[in-house]
Amino acid sequence: MRYDLIVGRYGEIALKSPRVRKRFENKLISNIKSALDCKINLNQARIFIYPENFDEGLETLSRIFGVVSYSPAISLKTNLEEIEKHLTAYVGELENIGLISSEKSFAIRTRRVGKHEMSSQEFSAFAGSVVVKKVGSPVNLTSPDITIFLEVRGEDTFIFHEKIKGPGGLPLGTQGRLVALISSGIDSPVASYLMMKRGCEIVAIHFNNAPFSGLKVTENFKKLINQLNKYAAGSKIKKVIVDYGEYLTASKEHAPERLTCVLCKSGMYKIAEKIAEREDALAIVDGSSLGQVASQTLPNILATREKTKLPILSPLIGLDKVEIEKIARKIGTFPISESDDGGCSAVPKYPETKADLSQVNMAKESIKQDEEVDKIINRIYS
Fold first, then answer.
1. Which CATH number covers residue 68?
2. 209 with 348, same domain?
3. Which long-range contacts (CB under 8 A, 24 or more apart) does 81-90 make?
4. Which residues pair with 43 in a beta bridge?
5. What's the rounded mean pLDDT across residues 216-238?
6. Distance between CA atoms of 315 and 194, rounded to whole angstroms?
7. Residue 294, pLDDT above cutoff 80
8. How far is CA 312 from CA 187, 188, 236, 380, in A?
9. What is the pTM of this model?
10. What was the pLDDT predicted at 340?
11. 260 and 355: one domain?
């Protein structure tokens, strides 16, 4: 098809106040331009995109948060002669690739903005007669084999037949910054993706547990960030790698073995909070899913998050593994997370699932948690 632009659409942005909507629109346009060499015109909830490379444009828009749907289209002037001429050619190309024929039904849907001598229904009727004349297709307004869209906007008209689903959400960078705890597993990259979809920039924190884990864990983390960065147009993800082996060693040597995972997660939150202060982040996000592993039972969640002042967001908290894996496959992180990285050997044989807060606080004192956390932060920002 000989398209000359892509018509993009946003959703919930349109519900914002005029001032907020303008800011979100500007950010969305900026994000698109950061990822794509193109020209953009914005007009009444439509984004008219003229990419230098059309195929690249279609692929890129599938990963831009804030874009609800988009359509490759042709543009023409709003008069009946032009519509007949271009629609006849357009339908001819659809016929050549087998999308329309005398055996396949069709419908015309017209959306009209502005003042015109004809109503939307009359435009549709005229366009329908053009299609029937060209290919003899039967009209079916209920369940057509193909729908052709006319978007009539003032003096300009756009013709298309596809509405490709975008990722939706809010433009990345409109909702502040988060620090994200990201391992090499399946859950945490998905949690970060979901918060990016809500417009949040991400600072990714990875805990290197060596000698309790191997090099593959950190390698997979870097691959995961590379994949997530495909969705981070305009606000690339910053990586912070924390050397955590010394802290885990202290936990195993100076506290009850069963509390290792609780102390590990507690330390992560404390470190994440201090990193958030340095990175101007407003909250922490993690991949917790209730009851999935030992550190994610309700008593352990309470114990690990105690005294953490920043909000801790867990967008996967009510999802099961199947639901999380479905998202991971969709965004391309699953194959990376699924590869064997050796895991963490610090996990005890019988981890605590119902942590007692007083016992956990005693264990924190025994490992001198605050001192260990400060040492780690000083190494990162020295």
1. 3.30.2130.30
2. yes
3. 82/157, 83/123, 83/126, 83/127, 83/130, 83/150, 83/157, 84/126, 84/130, 86/159, 87/127, 87/130, 87/131, 87/148, 87/159, 88/130, 88/133, 88/134, 90/1, 90/148, 90/159
4. 46
5. 96
6. 7
7. no
8. 15, 13, 22, 22
9. 0.94
10. 85
11. yes
Q: How far is the C-alpha of 251 from the C-alpha of 364, rounded, in Å?
A: 8
Domain boundary among 165, 188, 204: 165
The confidence band for 289, taking pLDDT boundaries of 50, 70 and 90, is very high
For 260, other C-beta atoms within 10 Å of its C-beta total 23
The SS3 of residue 239 is strand
Q: Which residue has the tokens 């359509």?
A: 71
Q: What pLDDT does 292 receive?
A: 82
Centre a 10 Å sphere on the Cβ of residue 228 and count the other Cβ atoms it contains.
23
Per the CB < 8 A criterion, the answer to whether 73 and 50 are in contact is: no
Element (H, E) at 8: strand 5-9
- What CATH number is given to the structural domain containing 288? 3.40.50.620
Residues 237 and 296 in one domain: yes
204 and 267 in a single domain? The answer is yes
**Does 234 fall in a domain?**
yes
Does any domain span residue 170?
A: no
Q: Are residues 151 and 182 in the same domain?
A: no
- Look over the chain and give the mean of its residue pLDDT values, rounded to a whole number: 95
What is the model's pLDDT at position 111?
95
Question: Amino acid letter at 265?
Answer: K
Q: Are residues 76 and 193 in the same domain?
A: no
Assign 21 a pLDDT band (cuts: 50, 70, 90).
very high
Residue 157 sits in the same domain as residue 187: no
Query: Under 8 Å CB-to-CB from 372, ≥6 apart: which residues?
Result: 246, 247, 250, 267
Q: Which of 166, 61, 159, 174 is nearest to 111 (CA)?
A: 159
**Pairwise CA distance, residues 50 & 370, whole Å:** 54
